[in-house]
Design brief:
Length: 125
């Protein structure tokens, strides 16, 4: 029996025994010839998310359009390979214009299955 125990900060991934993958940490092996066995582990370390602050003026991944007294905001979130990301946390802040701008409204949520976050901002009359 081969048994793999992960060290702190790691998780067992798989055994590769004679070029065959086994996903259980314990494997019975008959040693009737030479056997090559390698235990594979992966890091269990959580990499903290990075906040990205940007003033967006005309990107393709942000759509703002007005209908009557509301602005509709759609944000697409993509990874470094331009793949849409679902379940990503999004914060959109609406600021008043001018040299002494103030925060008017903050919208938070997560992207849907298509990698899109949407919000509607009502304009004061």
């Amino acid at each position: 029996m081969l048994n793999a125990t992960a060290a702190e900060g790691h998780l067992f991934d798989k055994w590769v025994i004679n070029n065959v993958d086994y996903t259980t940490s314990s494997v019975n092996v008959t040693m009737d010839s030479n056997v090559t066995a390698t235990a594979h582990f992966k890091s269990n370390t959580i990499v903290p998310a990075t906040k990205i602050f940007a003033e967006i003026t005309s990107p393709s991944n942000l759509a703002v359009y007005k209908w009557n007294t509301q602005f509709y905001i759609n944000v697409e979130v993509k990874d470094q390979k331009s793949a849409l990301v679902s379940g990503a946390s999004v914060t959109v802040e609406v600021w008043s214009p001018g040299p002494t701008s103030t925060l008017v409204k903050r919208y938070t949520g997560v992207t849907d299955a298509l990698g899109i976050f949407s919000a509607a901002h009502k304009v004061a009359n």
